[in-house]
Amino acid sequence: MIKESEYKKRRDILGKKLRNNSIAIILSSEHKKRSNDTEYPYRQDSNFYYLTGFKEDNSVLVFVKSKKEIKTILFVQKKDAQLELWNGKRVGEKKAKKIFNVDKVFSSDRLTEVLDKYKEKKRLFFDLTCKDKRVKKFSKNFSKHEDIRKIIESMRLIKSSSEIKLIKNAISITTKAHHNAIKFKKPGKNEYELQSEIEYDFKKRGAYSDAYTSIVACGNSANTLHYIQNNQALVDGELILIDAGCEYDYYASDITRTIPVNGRFSKPQKDLYNLVLDTQLRIIEMIKPNILRSDLHKKSEELLTRGMIELGILKGNYKKLIKNKKHKKYYPHGIGHWMGIDVHDQAPYKDEKDKEIPLKKGMVLTIEPGLYIDKNDKNVPKKYRGIGIRIEDDILVTSTSSENLSEGIVKSIKDIEKMSSKF
């Protein structure tokens, strides 16, 4: 759990980054409609949560900055017994003032009234895609608008020790789920049955929810990168690509493992799997401060392309193949992404000068090379067709190298087959 003092520190840092004579507005998420009068489970806006740790909707955080001081104002849903009967208890103004280290707390219905006091400020920082009618109307008082998201999301690049601990908790739960998926007796079952086992493991161990829609893709389904139907049979002799991670107290894990339905890899499956695994291990070894993500990706392209030439999947010189993007047919995505409060963390990859941001201590990213060979691809030896493999781990950049936070989730062929023998 992150303490209020850390949220206060983040607000202080953000306040210092704002320009003098300005006002900044950060809104909570709105409820999202599922159908008719039903809604999806509420999930707080990641930037708002990063600055407050507050999970209620209809909330607003405001910064007012002059040359002499920075004031923070929090707006919360007022107490209403009738609404609370249907939707649950609210913190309310009085309790919020005790919990949150801000200068003032008001009920959200007073937002327009309070904001109008600051019309004379020269610059407004807010989410430029904001659809809130109150904020859009207020923004017309300003000729200078800046996107507050860019500043907050840059702050989110470096994780604190508290954030890393929460990510580790999420990964610990995800580890057990993936191991149980390996042990689960799969032949004759359906993808959704395995998905339900994984997500049951998340919830029974205290995870808030899954961090994203789980992918459980057997056989050729794994060659659809964002396959989420999860409704096909688990066929004996095929591989299953499982991309599943939980969210623990708003922090994500993101893990992919590829395992055999019957617990044993065939020779062609081993050939492709070991190529992907060797590539991933070598890329992880490269990670340290000041390395560029683009260099990691280029190396993964080289390693996978060389390997595909050796296996007869591609023909020619690897440099020419990469230059002509022939490898992208089988390796179409990047080597990884930032991870944190969002599974694809909304943090920048380039700085204000459009230069790539190098890796720094405290960053967390995924490393996830993959190969995807469609069952109808006649340009590839028949034995490899219909196989899709991805291996993904969550990596913390340290002061000298890196730490694989998900190293405890088995991924060698030997270890997977040994664990599979338990079903």
Tell me what the structure shows.
There is one protein chain. By secondary structure, the chain is of the alpha+beta class. It has two domains: 4-155, Creatine Amidinohydrolase, Chain A, domain 1, CATH 3.40.350.10; 161-420, Creatine Amidinohydrolase (Alpha-Beta Complex), CATH 3.90.230.10. It has 13 helices and 19 strands. It has helices spanning 4-17, 46-52, 81-87, 92-99, 111-115, 133-139, 148-155, 161-183, 191-204, 267-286, 293-311, 318-323, 413-420; strands at residues 22-27, 33-35, 38-39, 60-65, 70-76, 104-107, 123-126, 144-147, 209-210, 215-218, 239-243, 246-248, 251-252, 256-260, 364-367, 370-373, 387-390, 393-397, 402-404. The strands form six sheets. The chain has a six-stranded mixed beta sheet with strand order 6-5-4-1-7-8. Helix 8 (161-183) crosses helix 9 (191-204) and helix 10 (267-286) packs antiparallel against helix 11 (293-311). The radius of gyration is 24 Å and the shape is globular.
Strand proportion, as a percent range, falls in: 15-25%
The coarse silhouette is globular
Helix content: 25-40%
The low-confidence runs, each spanning 5 or more residues with pLDDT under 50, are: none
What name does the CATH topology of the largest domain carry?
Creatine Amidinohydrolase
Structural class: alpha+beta
Mean pLDDT: 97
Number of helical stretches of at least 4 residues: 13
The N- to C-terminal Cα distance equals: 36 Å
SS elements, strand count? 19
CATH class of the largest domain: Alpha Beta
What would CATH call the architecture of the largest domain? Alpha-Beta Complex
What count of domains describes the coordinates? 2
Task: Tell me about the largest β-sheet.
Answer: 6 strands, mixed
Over all CA atoms, what is the radius of gyration?
Answer: 24 Å
- CATH homologous superfamily designation of the largest domain: Creatinase/methionine aminopeptidase superfamily
Q: Which strand order spans the largest sheet, edge to edge or round the barrel?
A: 6-5-4-1-7-8
